[in-house]
What we know:
Rossmann fold; Tumour Suppressor Smad4; 7 helices
Amino acid sequence: MATRQKIKSIGLVIKPHAPGVDRILREIITFLKAHKIEPLPEKIAAEKIGLKGGVEREKLSGLCQALIVLGGDGTLLSIAPQAARAGIPVIGINLGRLGFLTEIPVAEALPVLEAFIQNKNGFISQRSLLEIRYGDRQDICLNDVVLNKSALARMIELLIFINDQEVTRLKGDGLILSSPTGSTAYSLSAGGPIVHPGIECIILTPICPHTLSFRPLLIPSTSEIKIKLLTPEEKVYLTIDGQRGETIPRNAMIRIKKSNLFLQLVTSPWRSYYQLVKEKLGWAE
């Protein structure tokens, strides 16, 4: 990994209604100022604690050398694409429930920040992203791309190609295309495997497939996947990281491959990936 640029300012993104967010936000701002680092809260964060100004979330990554997320995984997913494009690390402090991405508990927030500022090695995890192309649109995501039916729709049918070879026609409720990081999200709920983020692959997990023979499939990260929607009338939704989505028409072709970009995710120096999985999935109980 290249030498990290000197930290002069850090952006602050929040889930505004998370319990205790104002208290920890004030503590972090005080901590950063004490270390001569300029805190750049997004507008809603500044308003939360009565500060004037604040930066639009969309502009934050261009003005700072790192981002702190105070909230849950959804908050981090919303900022991940711009952080990956800017090449800056993200520190996720968990104010939500599960928190696979925002894994750092509030009690460890300041010690982790101290270690990060001192540029200690060994706790920045490079996470691969997926690139999605649909029509003239392009997007990237950290967790997953989901194609699924609407609440009232019947079964949908998708034609799946991998590296231009037809693999199968999937009939069912939909399909999840996941990165290793996203393997513990929707894909896991649909019966997909837990995949260590260091393994380079793409995971295809069917949602309630009509045939029991279509099981979750791991393919090399160098693969390109094409999905063609064959369903004539039912509404089908394309959702990216649970954050952005739209309905797609029949015969639409969606292309998915591994992005050239990575997200630099700051993880706890005191907790391995296996400890995290064990804790979050209740394996210790």
